[in-house]
TrEMBL record:
The chain crosses the membrane at residues 281-298. Keywords: Cell membrane, Disulfide bond, Ion channel, Ion transport, Leucine-rich repeat, Membrane, Repeat, Signal, Transmembrane, Transmembrane helix, Transport. Residues 1-18 form the signal peptide. GO terms for molecular function: potassium channel activator activity; transmembrane transporter binding; voltage-gated potassium channel activity. PANTHER family: GH08155P, LRRNT DOMAIN-CONTAINING PROTEIN. One of its GO terms (cellular component) is voltage-gated potassium channel complex. It is a single-pass membrane protein. It is found in: Cell membrane. The keyword Disulfide bond applies. Pfam families: LRR_8. The keyword Transport applies. It comes from Zootermopsis nevadensis. InterPro entries: KCNMA1_auxiliary (IPR051432), Leu-rich_rpt (IPR001611), Leu-rich_rpt_typical-subtyp (IPR003591), LRR_dom_sf (IPR032675). This is Chondroadherin-like protein.
Length: 326
């Protein structure tokens, strides 16, 4: 009887203690991870330990993310929210997460990429696959991310590649499983660092291989040395007008080559600017160090000088006093 009572007591304590007891923690390489996966949560648990660096809340029933959802988790680097029902993300939700590097929002119900995510200063990987993105997917107003390395927009019902703008570090783009009709090298040209492009399962893409766009993209892919997942672009050697496509598409080919060169010089210039900045900082530092050392040297000299002066004055004053007493 007594045992039963204590068991009930323990159970009620466990229930009232709240969410943090349901999630499990693990630590490896000085990184604490909270695992809250598959627990039927309707909201992101907010009472977890505030020093977690990774939070996994996949396979829950979360429908929205709000300004307070992550307020206490300012050290988070990895956030996994795959397989929920997220359709709403409040402005400012990601503001506390300035350390965030990897975000997984795969298999949700989002229509746009949350602008706040692309603003994060350390973001490297963003998985948005298996959402139903609408129109431009929010990219038209998205800020340029200087740090993003991987973007997955696979299975997002895209008919057009969103306007991706300048992502100088983006090296992996996954746009497989969409309904893309065209993909032009002009759309991809701002992505200077692209190395992997997954275009598989876009059945509408290049239905007409006698198209200059096909030739251009194929040329761009070869010139940029891009590894693209398996499907060879099946461009025809001849255009619709039964002329040699190499000749017919020549002017546009030239353009793409130029864009690519512009793109590369942009990166070179950026690197130059960075090294210039570092040099500038170094010089400033050295100048300040010199000024400081000079200050120290002159300061001690001045101090010695003024000390002897005081001593002299004192002796002088003494002598004056002596004489006045006489
Ligand atoms: C957030 O963290 C602070 C300090 O670590 C703590 O006092 C506070 O209770 C936490 N808030 C929540 C909702 O857990
Ligand atoms: C959210 O932010 C965007 C862009 O900053 C702005 O256009 C929009 O009006 C904001 N929405 C709300 C509800 O504040
Ligand atoms: C692209 O995304 C799909 C769907 O998530 C995945 O199956 C595929 O492996 C990805 N491609 C690459 C190259 O990672
Ligand atoms: C490429 O072209 C060949 C010959 O025209 C055709 O048999 C093949 O199915 C095409 N492949 C694709 C992926 O369209
Ligand atoms: C297209 O060009 C390639 C190499 O230039 C050649 O091997 C291939 O036979 C050509 N195909 C057609 C259909 O002309
Ligand atoms: C094919 O011919 C038509 C009419 O002569 C012309 O308008 C079109 O630009 C040509 N297409 C190409 C790719 O040369």
């Amino acid at each position: 009887m007594c045992r039963l009572l204590s068991w009930f007591l323990a159970l009620s304590v466990a229930l009232s203690a709240g969410e943090e007891h349901i999630c499990t923690y693990s630590t490896s390489f000085h990184m604490t991870t909270a695992d809250c996966s598959g627990r039927m949560f309707k909201h992101v648990p907010t009472t977890l330990s505030s020093d977690i660096k990774a939070l996994s809340a996949t396979y829950n029933r979360i429908r929205g993310l709000y300004k307070d959802s992550f307020k206490n988790y300012t050290y988070l680097k990895y956030l996994y929210l795959d397989n929920n029902m997220i359709s709403y993300i409040e402005n400012g939700t990601f503001d506390p997460l300035q350390q965030l590097e990897v975000v997984r929002l795969s298999h949700n119900a989002l229509e746009t990429v949350p602008v706040g995510i692309l603003q994060l200063p350390k973001l490297r990987k963003l998985f948005m696959d298996s959402n139903r993105l609408n129109g431009d997917g929010g990219f038209a107003v998205a800020p340029v991310s200087e740090t993003l390395e991987l973007l997955s927009l696979a299975n997002c019902h895209l008919e057009d590649l969103p306007p991706l703008g300048m992502y100088p570090k983006l090296s992996e783009l996954n746009i497989s499983g969409n309904e893309l009709k065209v993909l032009s090298s002009h759309q991809l040209a701002p992505l200077c660092s692209l190395h992997l492009l997954d275009l598989r399962e876009n059945p509408m893409l290049f239905k007409n291989p006698k198209d200059c766009e096909c030739q251009l993209l194929a040329t761009w892919i070869t010139q940029m040395n891009i590894y693209y997942a398996e499907i060879p672009l099946n461009c025809s050697n001849e255009t619709e007008n039964h002329t040699d496509s190499k000749l017919a598409c020549m002017p546009q080919l030239q353009e793409v080559t130029e864009m690519q060169q512009t793109c590369r010089t942009t990166i070179v210039k950026r690197k130059q600017r960075e090294s210039e900045l570092i040099n500038c900082l170094l010089i400033t530092l050295i100048v300040f160090a010199c000024i400081y050392i000079a200050y120290l040297v002159i300061g001690t000299k001045f101090k010695n000088h003024s000390l002897t002066e005081i001593r002299l004055e004192y002796q002088h004053g003494d002598r004056n006093r002596d004489t006045s007493y006489v």
